[in-house]
């Protein structure tokens, strides 16, 4: 389930974000407790709590004292917005820099993307 590429608590946060993004968890829906999560995935409860705290800090989850953790209203939109921003910064900017480095003109990039868009819509 977890890999060695990043800290487990970040992988927990990413997994829950994916569940929200794909509609498996909805706004105001309760999520597993940190202890349930830790037991289910056989990890330290403190690690699970750190992942949940990250999601709370990012306003993806919120706490109801004595009840549990819930998906925040607008969480999906925040996740999509963050991923869009990262996509442009990490993927598109890198692509544009590489295209410039090897002399691919903008119009050729645009033509290629339009061609791919046509292929994907069929």
Automatic annotation (TrEMBL):
<dbReference type="InterPro" id="IPR036390">
    <property type="entry name" value="WH_DNA-bd_sf"/>
</dbReference>
<dbReference type="GO" id="GO:0003700">
    <property type="term" value="F:DNA-binding transcription factor activity"/>
</dbReference>
<dbReference type="InterPro" id="IPR036388">
    <property type="entry name" value="WH-like_DNA-bd_sf"/>
</dbReference>
<dbReference type="InterPro" id="IPR000524">
    <property type="entry name" value="Tscrpt_reg_HTH_GntR"/>
</dbReference>
<protein>
    <submittedName>
        <fullName>GntR family transcriptional regulator</fullName>
    </submittedName>
</protein>
<keyword id="KW-0238">DNA-binding</keyword>
<feature type="domain" description="HTH gntR-type">
    <location>
        <begin position="6"/>
        <end position="74"/>
    </location>
</feature>
<dbReference type="GO" id="GO:0003677">
    <property type="term" value="F:DNA binding"/>
</dbReference>
<keyword id="KW-0805">Transcription regulation</keyword>
<keyword id="KW-0804">Transcription</keyword>
